[in-house]
Write a structure and sequence with these properties.
rod-shaped; 2 domains; alpha+beta; Alpha-Beta Plaits; 4 strands; 4-stranded antiparallel β-sheet
Length: about 170
Amino acid sequence: MAKYLIGLYDDEDKLLSAVEAFQKEGIPIHEVCTPFPVHGLDHALHLKKSRLPDAAFVYGAMGTLTALSMQIYMYTIDWPINIGGKSHLPFPSFIPITFELTILFAGVLMFLSYLFVNRLYPGRRARVYDVRQTDDAMVMAIADEKVWDQARDLFRKTGAFEAKIVEL
């Protein structure tokens, strides 16, 4: 069981200014949870750019290569049939299958990657610091017990309506 000092905010501007104040004081922020997206929060927390778009490109390229290699193998090596004197490599007729497999690979593998990266596998218990974080409150959690006194004062100064210790 881990213990966290959490501060609850009711306004996103207060939360953003609190994040900046904690960063300025050098207090490490363990996690920030909000019930809705807060514009600029990822920048304020200095989070790295997500690599999921790069993964989507790679997954789509894998789908394209799979579709093209499968069709080329089937039409030229496995079962070459001369249909009306047409070429064994009719690339225009490959377009629909190639498109479909590109989208299929990108969509399914992105879904699985998202679940893996965010550890949203079945049976995992959600980490809920306070039940209000899913409704109307924004939660900032501090894990380092050595700075809790300083963090509690900073929560009060930055407009948190509640600061408490929770055990998860």
